[in-house]
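Lay summary. Proteins are chains of building blocks that fold into shapes, and those shapes determine what they do. In this project we predict the shape from the chain. Here is one chain we studied, written as its sequence of building blocks.
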Amino acid sequence: MTKRQVSQLLDFQFIDERANLVFIGPPGVGKTHLAIGIGQEAVEAGYKVLFITALALVEKLELAEIKGELKKQITTLQKFDLLIIDELGYLPMNRQARYNLFQLVNALYEYRSVIIGVCQQSCPI
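And here is the predicted shape, written in a compact code that computers can read:
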């Protein structure tokens, strides 16, 4: 990603338009660093941001589902203007975990922005 492209993201038009970003690449190329930087700048600009790893998110959703509170947890996550999900693809997910994650992304679609960091090539799965 070029400096110019990063600068364009820092006007946060993508958040205002409820668009999503996906950073794809092998480990060590800066996906997490870039997502955190954008998230920090968004917080300073007044947006509500949550950074969470895919594993922690899947565990949070699974626990909510077990308690019968999946919809409540999704509603809580919808309060953020930007949700950053990092390290997707590092660990395999079972069918229910994929379903729960789909439910969240579906609920956020066109209402909130998501940045997803996806591991590609040489990931430990």
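What the prediction tells us: The longest strand covers residues 82-88.
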